[in-house]
Amino acid sequence: MTAAVASGDALVRVEDLRVHFPITSGVVFQRKVGAVYAVDGLTFDVRRGETLGLVGESGCGKSTTGRAILQLIRPTAGRVLYEGSDLADLRGRRLRKQRKRMQMIFQDPYASLNSRMTVGDIIGEPLLVHRMGGKAERKTRVRELLETVGINPNTLNRYPHEFSGGQRQRIGIARALAVEPNFIVCDEPISALDVSIRAQIINLLQQLQREFGLTYLFIAHDLSVVRHISDRVAVMYLGRIVELAENAVLYGEPMHPYTQALLSAVPIPDPEAEERRRPVVLTGDVPSPVEPPSGCHFHTRCPAAREGLCDAQDPPLREVRPGRWASCHLITETDYPRIRAGEDDLAVVAGSTEGGDGP
First-to-last CA distance in the chain? Predict the structure, then answer.
């Protein structure tokens, strides 16, 4: 099992989480011929009151991780502990009782709202499912929630198609808040929105976190947004976490070669600096989660990979510095591979301390 990522007051703890989707063959007599290793051994904590950012390329397993934590997808193996209670062991009423305290904001504000229901019914449905209050009390609660997320309470009898994308996402946030949860999985909540609306939704989420003491798992592929909202950041690659650290530490000094490559692709709001910079361009394609590489999953694209080590041994996620976790054979307490773009191809730079703290 992967080494434990310890923290102080953990609200949610994920231990060796795995989600494998079977691949079957045959029409009448189906047999399993393989599996998609969507999530392949995650261990981390989400501390009470924090925002943990989860980033990585599309298809690396971020959304599957969020859904598996909430048991919307049943994990193949591993444990999800919510305040010490293993959610994987819960069924029926016991699981429904816990779900009052854990909610999700979905990625697509158009697909996640039932077009046949009014906004009032959409937001009030969780209250009805969990039998919270009478009809009049639920209506009052819906009006309060709409006002909380910045929508006119008098619009509760309208339908989703009468609202813009940003307003629909606010409605989705109001629905998530309806049953007063303390943990919310934000599954790329701004990726489907216009750039001008994204800042409004991010500011709203931060305001609600301060007001209600919420804990977020914020899933995204936009590293600039994650930097703005997150307290800690976990970087995923092909179903595994390759690096986890405090926000400022990870962005200031990325250790893992994959993290360095990701951050090098983030645009800089300075045309001259952007023109001078040569981003790290990884070679090769992302391996298939059906047949992940042996050893380190990243070794097929890593310019620092060592033959006989990285392709043969699976690196555990370990604490290389206090509060700093990484999954790489080449990272030690004082040294790690630093990657920069050379004139013609990638160059690996020794991890000395010359030139400051940054990579």
Answer: 31
**Cα distance between residue 144 and residue 142, in whole Å:** 5
Amino acid identity at 144: E
Residues in the chain, total: 359
Q: Going from the N-terminus, what domains does the chain have, and what CATH number goes with each?
A: 10-24+33-101+181-349 (3.40.50.300)
**Of the candidates 214, 186, 227, 190, the residue with the CA atom closest to the CA atom of residue 101:** 214
CA distances from 231 to 46, 105, 267, 343 (A): 10, 19, 21, 36
* Count of helices and strands (H, E) across the chain: 10, 14
By the 10 Å C-beta count (0-12 exposed, 13-18 middle, 19+ buried), 80 is classed as buried
8 A C-beta contact, residue 328 and residue 256: yes
**Tokens 């080590």 appear where?**
309
- In tens, the pLDDT along 327-339 reads 999 998 888 988 7
Rounded to whole angstroms, the Cα distance separating 128 from 134 reads: 9
Compute CA 332 distance to the chain's CA centroid, rounded to the nearest angstrom.
26
Collect all residues with Cβ–Cβ distance below 8 Å to 277 and sequence separation of at least 6. Answer: 264, 268
Contact 129, 161 (CB under 8 A): no
> Model pTM?
0.88
User: Please, are residues 254 and 337 in contact by the beta-carbon 8 Å criterion?
Assistant: no
CB 42 within 8 A of CB 78: yes
Work out the mean pLDDT of the chain and round it to a whole number. Answer: 88
- 77: alpha, beta or left, given left = phi > 0 and alpha = psi -120 to 50? beta
Task: Please report how many Cα atoms fall inside a 13 Å half-sphere around the Cα of residue 289, on the Cβ side.
Answer: 22
Q: How far apart are alpha carbons 188 and 130 in whole angstroms?
A: 26
CA 96, CA 256: separation in Å to the nearest integer? 39
In tens, the pLDDT along 228-286 reads 999 999 999 999 999 999 999 999 999 999 999 998 887 777 677 666 667 777 888 88
> Which DSSP string corresponds to 76-131?
SEEEEEETTEEGGG--HHHHHHHHTTEEEE-S-TTTSS-TTS-HHHHHHHHHHHTT
